[in-house]
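Weekend entry, working from home. Most of the wet-lab plans are on hold until the incubator is repaired, so I used the time to fold the two sequences that have been sitting in the queue since the last round of cloning. Logging both here for the record. First:
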Amino acid sequence: MRPDPAPSSAESHPRRALLLNVALSVAVTAAVLAAGEGLARRFQPPARPRPLADTRGLDWQAEWQGDFYVVKSEAVGWPLGQDFNRDGLRDRPHPVEKPAGTYRVACLGDSVTFGYGFTRAESWPHALQDLVDARGPGVEVLSVALPGWSTRQERYAYERIARRYRPDAVVLAVVLNDMEDLHNNLTQPPAWLVELFKRSALVRRVTNAEGREIRSVDELFVQPESRAVSSGYERLFAEIRQLAADVRADGAALHVMVLPDADQVGPSPPAPIPQERIGAFLRSEGIGVIDPLPSLREVGSEGFLDRLHFTPRGSTRVAEAVRTGIPASAYEPAALRAALSAHGETADAARARPALLATLAADASPEVRRQAAWALGRQRASGPEVGAALTRALEDTAPAVRVEAARALAAAGPEASGAPATEARLIALLDDPRSEVRWAAANALDARGVHGASDVPWLARALRHSDPYVRGFAAWTLGVAGPAAGEAAPALQGALRDPEPGVRALAVRALGNIGRGDASVVAALADVVAHGTGEGRWRALRALAKLGPAAAPAVGVMVRALADPDEKVRRESALALDRVGPPASAAVPALVAAQRDAVPEVRDAAAQALRTITAAR
């Protein structure tokens, strides 16, 4: 077979020419791009600062690794006043089953509704709860809000959290930067272009990404509105429309409240263009509108912490605006007023004579009985006659009456709830079939205080209750009792295996407060450190620290914990070894190594433990 002939010079010349042309084109293109990049960097304008009150380009994916988040929480409701509940929201816990005769209001919002800068009790949803509670029983307010949420996350929160509580009304609090968040996050370019944008001044100049963003709420007050602002409104309206459909399908009513910014209550406010724009949409969709702007104008700048967030005074004004949208029949004690009038009493229901209210707590009407118990609670009334009436009300056939009686006893304090008959009835109510009654009874027992060893038997039984709120109450209360609750140690050891991590953490805390250094207690706590999860592990180390030298059998576990990935576990381990003292001498090499820990607090704790352990040598 003859080999193929070699290509002639005439055939190879075009191929070489093509390669040279391609190489030259690539080189020229690279040179032009490099020159363009250099010029873009040379003449790149300085970054324009964003107003402090705005979200400053919050990127959901970068901040949350997704487009929704809640706060991780192991809470079961105890201690009372925990900032976050088991839903990961800054609110008290609520029974999933809606109590009979209760009107539920779910408040959806972001950091403004959350109460940024102040305590949970100073946010507007909690101010709303206080306002309706002062007027009558029957309304329960849920705060469903976290910082950084926009209308999309608030819609998700309704779908994933709030709707299972079956609210009767939903209040969506729209903040003016919602349009900014929605437009800027939902018009994100592909990931490869984002990376180029970060690295190349030329790409930034060509794409003009910042020119396509809404950079500040100020842009909402400019006419004619920009394409970006129009996009933000359309995305907002789409979210509200979908939320409204979900709320209506659940048989509830949606109200939307547009929260103004501080400039709108100042001496020279701009025209309320955003409120008018959103209000027109809401009216066209048949959605309720709440306007807090007139009320906030009355307090002016004192109602605002910064441009967007409220002070407690501002939150109260917002709550007042929302209250007007709640049917008065949901909370006004009309039945009680009629009963008082029949007895010749014309005073306000909450100020009626306690003796007459005590009588009405046995009225034939369940609603009168409920409202009479509420009125006694508002007065914090006590005394034998009132105490006897409320104790009888704890056995009422209507759950709502039992709840209000327990709340009234909690408000009155130990003098009312500490009577033997009352106390026995409250303990029995921990087994009530209705969760709202059980919770109110637990709260009343907490208000009456801890009596010590006499409480141990029923609290130990409550540790095995089916309701985690009741179990949490029992573990918390035993911890408050301290050494006087020593006989509860075996029951608390059993609670270390509770299915709820929040109950386990409370049981750990209680064992530390009781202070019994029994071998079984030390072993149980050491097992939590070695094999537990969540905050129970560092709490177990803290409990072991409270046992002092008696915790010496757990030194091996503490030594291993010094190398734990969790810095809080490492620090608490070093602190526990310090409390064990010289019996922890086997930990010296590990403590020496811990002095090189990356976390200063761990290093300091390790150094202190070394000084304590080696002091007697």
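Second, folded right after the first finished:
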Amino acid sequence: MDWNIEDFPTDIGEAEALDRCYREDISWIVNQVRNGTSTAVECDKQISQYLYMLIRTRLRNEAEIDCIYVDGRQIPEAVLQANPQAAQAGRLQRMLIHLGYEINNMTEESATIVLPYLDLLTCMGGANDSLTTEARELLPLLYENPRVTLMTFVDPSFTLFDTIDKAFTAKRKLLGIGREALQHLITQRDARKFPKEFNFQRLYQYLSGLNPVRIREVLSRIEGVDFPEDDTQVLRQIRELTIPSETALPNVDLEKDIGGYGDVKKKIQEEVLDILSYRETLTDDGDLKQADEIIPKGMIFWGPPGTGKTYFAKAMATALNATIFIVNGPELKSMWVGKSEENIREVFRKARQSAPSIIVFDELDSFAGRRDRLTGNSVQHSMVNQLLTEMDGFRKEELVFVVGTTNFVESLDQALLRPGRFEMKIEIPSPEKEDRLKILEIYNEKMNLGLSEEELENIASRTGETVDPMTGMPYTGDHMNSICRNLKRIQIREQKKEFTKEDISFALRGGVDKKKLTDEELNVVAYHEAGHAVVATFLQETTSVERISVDSDYGMALGYVKQEEKSSKFLYSRKQLMADMVVLMGGREAEMEFLGDITSGSSNDIERANTLAHHMTSSFGMTDSMGTFVRTRDTSDDTSHQAERVMRILLKNAQKTARKIIQENRNLLEVLAETLKEKKVLEKADYEALVHKTLKDEEIKKKEVDMAQFLKDVDEQVDQTVQD
């Protein structure tokens, strides 16, 4: 639609603005009252008086219906004569006395009683949100005379009790405006404060949640020269006037403040931001409606904790110049009936009034989990229903986005995930090495750490195959932040310009001091880690060794072997999993071969090996004898025992193969263990140099395990066991 300044009126009054925007709604309300239906109008208190005047005029002119206005200020003389105590009562009590008199003495059916402050009389209050004293007195009055027609105005920030709400059969919400109404609220004076070619449709995204009177207030307060060169200043003024004082606009740049995650950024840019940029260029109503239909308003950001799901939402809000409301799922819950749903309604109300906006439900699964008869509770179910109701209640053209973050997307209620609600799902996984490097570069610059490219590369690499020792989870962006903050504290505390390797290791451990090993413990750890490394060297199906440490420089671990990250993060072959199982057995078998005993240091290795064997046998269908069997709680005892026998064969063969590699390479393992005791840490280049100094390439190649033959032998053993 092309708008010219001459098309705009010179002045617009409050009542006129409401009549232009809500004409159809007012007609609907008038018809309900004419038919004798008690009606509740949900609207801002700011406009209730003007609406009442418009409705009263229509009722008088069209149906000769009078309105009795019960607001507690001026009480008719007849009421005072019947109830002399009313003169000394408070305003709420005067309202009740006046209402009771009118209901009990109603003689004309052509009159409507108007309660402008019903919400103040009956809203939820108190520690347990019980009925107020006034509400208890009002309740019987509302149902006492069925011939009485009532009309009330309720502010959306209040919630009525069901018993009171049901007294009003007809209900109408007047919240915000439709896009087509915007043209009726701009005056010629307002239009001159924008550039000459300004597309006034763009204003809707900032004004959609406001009532017409409030919109007129905002537009009338715009200052500046007529017909400025650009719209920067005028839009800034409008944004400042349309957001609550306690709400701040986020300032997170999608590219500058978030490192890596190119695929995630691309999806947000292409699916949301680019469509909205295109939408701002449109003037045709049909084109605008089509654009509104395809913009995803509900999104799920899912992935492990600490990957920046909420941070991405903030970056999206920054790009949209949108307010953001971050709500923690558990905080919405209340033990009082109806309060949880009210909390959700209030969040959406505030978001609509400060549009464009983004509501972020952190830990969405905490209250919006899958509903069925056997799980969850009535409060949780009603909260999901309320969330769905609010999401379905938006106008298509309103720019209010709802983002749910979760670590357990599979647990969410299916109704939320269907198209039209949370229809865009974006996985934000643990960062890859390149992502971690980009994240580190951002923190390095922000904190002025002065880390070199080599040091950044080292940190990014060392946080790959290893996991957070406290949680057992892969390293995330939060870990990168923690590492850099630890380094910054070292820099400030020790006045350092450069960091040592020990400083970086300290930061990688999360600031935990190293464990001090006795000579005997160091000897065990050295042979244990050397066993892992040597076994990995002779298995092509596993990744190469990048770092070996017996310096207790990794969280709670006394030592560790770090291997290169696997190229595939989602699919693993049978050979790869079996090779990993053999490597896990390397530490234990090295202890047995060289020290003649086994320590508790192998407990985690054994646990992980058992997990692999279980998945191969009972989930992945990787053993011929078990076929595509999946083990469940309903599996028979005989089948479970058979699966356990197959697992034992896998584990036993992994153990035997690890011992065979160690026995064939005793010299290499012994040299490696002694070197580790001396140097504590060997990087990839140092380890490879040690291997090639001890063995020739031909020897290494000759001694490599033939995994195909290995698996063939395993299958024969399994088949024989099953037959027996």
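Plan for Monday: verify the second prediction. Residues 50 and 526 are 83 Å apart (CA to CA).
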